[in-house]
Amino acid sequence: MTATPPLLSVQDLHITFPGRHGAPPARAVDGVDLDIRPGEIVALVGESGCGKTTLARSLMGLVPPTTGRVTFAGAPLDYSSRALKAYRKRVQLVLQDPSGSLNPRHTVYDAVAEGLRIHGYDGDERAAVAEALSRAGLRPPERFFLRYPHELSGGQRQRVVIAGALVLQPELVVADEPVASLDASVRGEILALLLRLRDELGLSALVVTHDLGLAWNIADRVAVMYLGRIVETGEVEQVLTAPRHPYTQALLSVLPEAPGAPVVLTGEPPDPSRIPSGCRFHVRCQILADGEAARAGVADACRNQDLNILTGTGETQVACHWARARTETTAAAGSGPGVGAGGGVTAEPQ
């Protein structure tokens, strides 16, 4: 997979928003590299406020980057109206709340056909809408044509939203919390649908979520985001079975099937206009708080020494001084350079 050229690539992306009343600008996305390859599902994971939705909106051209660039199919994203219209035919957005995504005055048919009409589709509109609904699992599709959103269940509404994305035959779908508002029984159906669409159509997807359990079930690769930056990334099984960053370990510890006691992080994520020096997680880090980082000799580095941006490739990487120290200890013991608990490559500090 890593040898395949990326379909979408994000390079050193920064997005800042002006501060209010003279406050410093908020660094919502503060240096992100991320690649998504054809047929690959990448989960972008993090708690609320970490910048993952801002990143997703930037990939759609809705939020131009302050610095850095987004590349699609080898070409930099052009932010002119005409270019964005052509781009959004190939990259579609699926939002969290289907009730808010669908116009209550439009029938299912009109909701799905809207994209075709915007892009001037000159084929058989009825057949295209029927095929999209059928692929999304609403069969027979004609039965849903004249129904309104309020007549559908939550799962059916989300399938209509997915059909509205599929009708344009996109190459990539950006799904922002696609099952967060659904019952547990329906969530599995929608996730299975996304996996089937990947297998049948070769569809790529970026799935934005706060739920590591969802990432485990659907993703090929996971990127864990904290305070505007990706702090751990790699193949989903490797990252989630042997997490190396303390933040990833804390997120995993609260899953129902996780062994041991949950890790309770102290305080709230820092203000993105006042990002701490050193490791941006250090003010909440359980490894630093319990003295383990000091025993590894990296406590000062955690507080004061910045870490490089992780690359967007498929390699397993972590931005953590403590994880790096463990890697070096393991390497010195004879495991070979660059491999540590979890089997990945750490980011060197600047």
Automatic annotation (TrEMBL):
<dbReference type="InterPro" id="IPR013563">
    <property type="entry name" value="Oligopep_ABC_C"/>
</dbReference>
<dbReference type="InterPro" id="IPR017871">
    <property type="entry name" value="ABC_transporter-like_CS"/>
</dbReference>
<comment type="similarity">
    <text>Belongs to the ABC transporter superfamily.</text>
</comment>
<keyword id="KW-0547">Nucleotide-binding</keyword>
<feature type="domain" description="ABC transporter">
    <location>
        <begin position="8"/>
        <end position="252"/>
    </location>
</feature>
<dbReference type="Pfam" id="PF00005">
    <property type="entry name" value="ABC_tran"/>
</dbReference>
<protein>
    <submittedName>
        <fullName>ABC transporter ATP-binding protein</fullName>
    </submittedName>
</protein>
<keyword id="KW-0813">Transport</keyword>
<keyword id="KW-0067">ATP-binding</keyword>
<dbReference type="InterPro" id="IPR003439">
    <property type="entry name" value="ABC_transporter-like_ATP-bd"/>
</dbReference>
<feature type="compositionally biased region" description="Gly residues">
    <location>
        <begin position="335"/>
        <end position="350"/>
    </location>
</feature>
<dbReference type="GO" id="GO:0005524">
    <property type="term" value="F:ATP binding"/>
</dbReference>
<dbReference type="InterPro" id="IPR003593">
    <property type="entry name" value="AAA+_ATPase"/>
</dbReference>
<dbReference type="Pfam" id="PF08352">
    <property type="entry name" value="oligo_HPY"/>
</dbReference>
<dbReference type="InterPro" id="IPR050319">
    <property type="entry name" value="ABC_transp_ATP-bind"/>
</dbReference>
<dbReference type="InterPro" id="IPR027417">
    <property type="entry name" value="P-loop_NTPase"/>
</dbReference>
<feature type="region of interest" description="Disordered">
    <location>
        <begin position="331"/>
        <end position="350"/>
    </location>
</feature>
